[in-house]
Write a sequence for this structure.
């Protein structure tokens, strides 16, 4: 099952930057496995309890790094970075089809601090989840789920054989 899962994985990575709380990290890894991501990058010094992953890391490659240089990391790993942050193109208007021949890496920041300002200054595409309520942001694992699901939905539409 592990080999099949990894072979069928979509060319999608998820990066979690300095997240607060075990559940956000573990639930994001679990969702990434369910939605067919190939890799999850957990960046930062925070330790987390992997038990809530419920074995999901057996079906997705999980990498834990203290930090990265965003100006070189994505090129070195042949990844197309995409920031998930307020102020971007609304997710429901974003067309992922032109990116589907590349390995996309969705980058999620912490709920309290978001994506670092130095990363926001880089020329990475930015997508936002439209919000209509009064609360300023979604739980990060929920936001990651929404974005990955929309990518997967568009991928399935583009690949009629799936």
């Amino acid at each position: 099952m592990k080999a099949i899962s990894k072979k069928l994985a979509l060319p999608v990575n998820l990066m979690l930057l300095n997240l607060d709380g075990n559940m956000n990290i573990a639930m994001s890894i679990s969702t990434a496995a369910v939605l067919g991501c190939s890799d999850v990058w957990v960046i930062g010094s925070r330790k987390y309890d992997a038990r809530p992953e419920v074995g999901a890391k057996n079906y997705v490659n999980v990498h834990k790094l203290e930090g990265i240089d965003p100006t070189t990391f994505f090129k070195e790993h042949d990844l197309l970075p995409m920031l998930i942050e307020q102020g971007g193109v609304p997710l429901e208007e974003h067309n992922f089809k032109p990116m589907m021949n590349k390995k996309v890496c969705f980058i999620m920041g912490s709920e309290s601090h978001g994506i670092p300002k130095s990363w926001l200054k880089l020329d990475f595409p930015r997508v936002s989840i439209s919000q209509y309520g009064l609360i300023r942001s979604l739980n990060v694992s929920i936001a990651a789920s929404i974005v990955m699901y929309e990518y997967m939905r568009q991928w399935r539409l583009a690949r009629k054989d799936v």
